[in-house]
Design brief:
446 residues, alpha/beta, Rossmann fold, ten-stranded mixed sheet, three-stranded antiparallel sheet, 17 helices, 17 strands, 20% strand, binds S-adenosylmethionine
Length: 446
């Protein structure tokens, strides 16, 4: 969370008592980035931990808030990341300290010293140099069959993510900031923020993925943990766009949440649900809905577009140097693949037009640095880059094979070749992710 996140606090309300969120305690922190602090409302105190606001009311979050109150920041983080190292009684000790305040009494100082000495060291977290290290440590080990770490690490390459590339022009002129709901590690909101300049807020039920986001992907845009099944902690009409990529089918209260997504999105705004599963082929698909039923739970006009209707024309338009994609509603009779569902703004007569031209499409006109997608090994040879797809686990090999028809296993590309660079950026082989994500140098400016 940055001090610049004040725009978000002004739009936030408590998910329980609906009173506004008071961020005064955060404002007292004079560092540019607020890593730790407390947010108050009429009924609760919520912690900000490692730059992530945690708007939940469970016991774990309360424990983390107590540690933040007693300035045990690493412990608060360890609690939410489920790292080992807490000692029994720490929470009680923290509570006593926070009640006593920061008075200079020797007993308080002694208690604080004990409290600090019993905390875990920062070593383990400090050793995570790249997104991949941290993802493997944080989300990879719980269930070895699930490979969520690999999914997250290679996320920007997969079609389910990079069909968002085609739709970026939709996010330019929204009447307010963008909410990335079920945003995981925030790859989608980062892409939108970086390329269109739109302010974004990423929310998820998972603290760990948002920790990855604020640490490795984007330090400027805010992230908020919400409670599963809880209301969204935002005022009505707080956002101009609400985006969800590959997420709503994982939400148990999907239909109630649809109402929430509409509530927090301005009436003239856009709700964009991308890569919604319509079949159960994928092993980790959540609860899919048939294409014709994807709009259930929403009141706004919608266009339902198969993902392949977006990706293929986009790739062609980029390779041909420009054009536009006309997307038609195909909710009847287009089963058997994943769909994008667009509600509201720019939806007209069951069609949406997407311009794919320089000066209009932010990726085609991108002049900033790019990095090679994590899924490719990179070697350099004079002025050329050799990119070769890294081995993937069997589960993802299958998933990627189904979705990466428009990418190759290997490329040789000259850094001076602007067209080739643009084409690889559109396909997700190059990305606009920051250098710290992959822990190696950027590979050229436009
Ligand atoms: C397949 S991931 C997609 C993440 C991200 N949108 C992306 O495309 O990379 C699904 C996400 O949904 C989140 N999720 C699951 N249940 C949720 C709920 N009830 N509310 C909000 N997010 C939820 C998960 O934590 C996970 O990050």
């Amino acid at each position: 969370m940055c001090d610049t996140s004040q725009w978000l606090f002004r739009r936030m309300e408590c998910p329980e008592c609906k009173s506004p969120i008071d961020s005064t305690a955060l404002r007292r922190n004079d560092r540019q980035r607020v890593e730790y602090g407390l947010l108050d409302c009429a009924c609760a105190t919520y912690p900000v931990v490692a730059g992530v606001a945690v708007l939940r009311t469970d016991a774990l979050t309360q424990t983390a808030a107590e540690h933040v109150a007693s300035r045990e920041f690493e412990t608060a983080r360890s609690v939410l990341l489920n790292l080992p190292g807490r000692v029994p009684g720490r929470s009680a000790c923290g509570t006593v300290l926070s009640r006593l305040g920061s008075a200079g009494h020797p007993a308080v100082r002694a208690l604080a010293a004990y409290h600090r000495a019993s905390g875990r060291s920062d070593e383990e977290v400090g050793a995570w140099r790249t997104f991949e290290d941290a993802a493997t440590a944080l989300v990879g080990s719980d269930d070895p069959g699930f490979y969520f770490d690999e999914y997250l690490t290679f996320r920007p390459l997969e079609q389910s993510f990079w069909n968002l590339h085609a739709l970026l022009p939709l996010f330019h002129d929204a009447p307010g900031p963008l909410l990335d709901f079920a945003g995981g590690a925030g790859h989608a909101s980062d892409l939108v923020a970086r390329t269109t300049g739109t302010r974004t807020c990423t929310v998820d039920v998972n603290f760990r993925t948002l920790f990855l986001y604020t640490r490795f992907v984007n330090r400027q845009q805010p992230a908020v943990v919400i409670g599963e099944g809880a209301d969204l902690p935002f005022f009505d009409d707080a956002f101009g766009t609400t985006l969800n990529v590959d997420g709503l089918h994982f939400v148990p209260n999907r239909f109630a949440m649809s109402g929430e997504l509409e509530r927090v999105t301005a009436a003239d705004g856009l709700v964009a649900l991308l890569h919604q599963h319509t079949d159960d082929q994928a092993r980790i698909s959540g609860t899919a809905l048939p294409t014709a039923e994807q709009t259930r739970g929403f009141d706004r006009e919608a266009v339902v577009v198969p993902e392949r209707d977006v990706v293929e024309p986009f790739v062609r338009a980029v390779d041909e140097g420009g054009g536009s994609i006309e997307l038609h509603d195909r909710r009847d009779g287009a089963d058997g693949g994943d769909v994008n569902v667009l509600f509201g703004a720019d939806v007209d007569d069951d069609t949406v037009d997407i311009p794919v031209e320089r000066r209009v499409h932010p990726l085609l006109d991108w002049a900033g640095p790019v990095t090679v997608n994590h899924a490719y090994e990179v070697t350099t040879d004079g002025g050329s880059l050799h990119l070769e797809r890294r081995p993937l686990s069997p589960v993802f090999r299958e998933e990627f094979d189904r979705t990466m028809a428009h990418t190759d296993e290997a490329y040789v590309v000259s850094l001076d070749d602007v067209d080739a660079r643009r084409s690889l950026l559109a396909r997700g082989v190059l990305t606009v992710l920051p250098e710290r994500y992959v822990g190696r140098p950027v590979v050229g400016d436009g």
